[in-house]
Please model this.
Amino acid sequence: MTRSSDRRNDGKQIDHAIAHSLFWDDARDILLILRDDGRIIDGNRKAVESYGYGKDELLSLCIHDLRDPATVSLVDEQMTVAASKGILFETVHRRRDGSTFPVEVSSRGATIGEEKVLLSIIRDITSRKEAERRVSETLEFNQKIIEASPLAILTYDASGQCVFTNEATGTIIGASREQILRQNFRTIEPFRATGVADLAEEALATGTQRRIEFHTVSSFGKEVWLDTLLIPFTTSGKPHLLLICADMTKRREAEEALRTSNETLETLIRAAPLAIVVFDASGIIQLWTPAAERMFGWAAEEVTGKFHPIVPKEKKDEFRALRETAMQGKTFTGRELRRRRKDGSVIDISVSTSPLRDVDGRITGIMSIITDITERKKSEETLLRLATAVEQSAEIIMITGVKGDIQYVNPAFERITGYHRNEVLGKNPRILKSGRQDPSFYEELWETLKRGDVWSGVFQNLRKDGTLYEEEAVISPVRDGSGEVINYVAAKRDVTKERRVEEQLRQAQKMEAVGRLAGGIAHDFNNLLTAITGYSDLLLLHLPEGDTPHREALEIRKASDRAAALTRQLLAFSRRQVLQPKVLDLNQVVANMEKMLHRLIGEDVELITTLASDLGYVKADPSQIEQVIVNLAVNSRDAMPKGGKLILETTNVELDENYATRHEPAQPGSYVMLAVTDSGCGMDEATMARLFEPFFTTKEVGKGTGLGLATVYGIVKQSGGYIWAYSEVGHGTTFKVYLPREEMVAEQVEEEDTSLYSSEGEETVLVVEDEQMVRELVREILSQQGYDVLEAARGAEALEVSERHKGPIHLLITDVVMPGMAGPELARRLTARRPAMKVLFMSGYTDDAILHHGVLEPGTEFLQKPFTAGALGGKVRHMLDVSRSEKA
Model:
């Protein structure tokens, strides 16, 4: 093999042989001289430019280096053919930068000197290929358009033989493409039988374009209308014919349907009860239907071509404004107007208008559809007056179906019962039943109604909020034209307030009578008691202690004290005692009485006080308020013979109009509330009804005077307040005392006893509270007392904290109501894993939520919010000390 330097020398010899060839470097094509092994001996300037190599680089290459890798395998075979007989072929060459381009190669063997070589002329055919591609794409695009066309396109030669057809032709004519291509236009059925063949021959002979629309039946048996265009043309010097057929069947069917529709519409217009009137742009009537004649009294010939006669003079401007608006393209639907008839009478009409447009979209007129609503308007006015009366009635109006389903209630029903009408429509009135009336009451009601008679009576029903109310009702059947009962209508009047006032009047009269009696005898009776008491004291001074006479005199003294106390109770109940009111801190009064109350209620009753830190002041007699607390505590103690809990709580409250309405004679305003709650046996409704009556007692004879709660009632009322009791059998009782809140400062305010706050500990306490401020407060209080505090915001988080903490947790303090997991559920889960851990619940909810609803079980430790630091520290210390003593 010749080295590259030898190759360059050889190239110089060849250069010398062809140096005088004028076409070499000026040639527009690439010229290469190759050895028989494919090595490049020489190349012209075009080769250097086309491949991007320098001249020396090009002469160091082989023809294989210039071929696209995909075609390299053909090189040797092509060189062999070129050397023997020459070759012309297309391939792809590669430039120095790796890009490729299509080429046409013409190569033939030659002898230069004594060496056999290949002379290759290489032409860049990129432009030609691009042109071919565009032509191919154009042909393909045109072919696709023709094939996609919904028109049947056929081409025939001069003999009438089909030379081309598209896919749509078979669908329209009803034959396959192969069948059409085999037939002459003189023999294919749709053209032969309809005269198309004759027109085709004429078009070919004259070179004149023809068009025909004809009806035929395709080979599929379908009737079709075809619009056919015959266009003669010449190609390659020979005449041809182009047929273009459009299927007009759907258009013809639509035209027929439109004609039928127009006939139907005209029939409907003439028979329609609605008047249809068409005006032109100036307001002249163009169409006046028979219904318009019947409605207004003018015949069509009387008004057509004239200005609107039905518009009264005073309504001309209104009509003109409406017409101008309609001419702007706006429509009206159901516009109610007043118009006149031919006889001069006025009628109410409902008008709907729409603009009429020509083919260019210009508005040329207005069409109005008119309904006579005179009778409807009269009925509506009557119904409106009736509906207004019913809707504004102070009494309940209820309409039901024959099966009792509620179909209508008026606003008075919503106001009195608390139910929105959407809550009761479709339901039975039994949703209001209180259960206080036995089944025979309702059986008699329905027997009366089924006989078709009117029923009247009094219901004791429940409002939506559960409060009881009484209503006098009259229920009447509603009959249709045939006399059949189709509805019942009930008119009801709320008489709750009247009954309550009557009861309060009776109670007031009874209390006033007792008060007058007590007031009448108090003076003389107290004089007698003073004498008895005084002499008893004298006797006691002179009689030796321990002797029988001394003991007897002492019993007389005690009896006189009890009599005096009984007199004071009577006066308190009758609200005739002399009071010495002061501005008080009710919290201070309760706090000062705690030790005495503990002794009074005994060890088996747990006393819990929850006092609001921001409590307002009240104006009352301190001793009388203490008597109220004592009497309520004693009443609660007696209701818990086996022990329980007694809870005293104070808070600020605002009584609104709604509360005052349901708790007459309470008045809206700002109050301080004292609540006394026990977990005792509770009371039934009959007992509750007589709770504050004097001398009424449920205790055994000799164990109660029946004046304890009556005294409480009198003191509270004389202090300007109110007292209400809430109780259920087996669920304890709550008394709530409301005293008017004072803006003045209390006359005596003692500092809070903070001795419990100094209690300290070192145990671990887990605090779970979703309110961040409370959680941080508890943590701060307990941390300052030395406790190790863990905290969590939710129940799930508390479980994770417990799982991570490896040491003991002595006490869990958790809120009762938390999102996700309530306090009791959390306590059950944690105590299952840590049985020795104590649990203290805390809550800001009222005692109803905590005690009456069973959230906490008896014996559960509970701390009412808000609480003081001393109360919290003392409670925690107490629970942990008890736990420690139990372990010891």
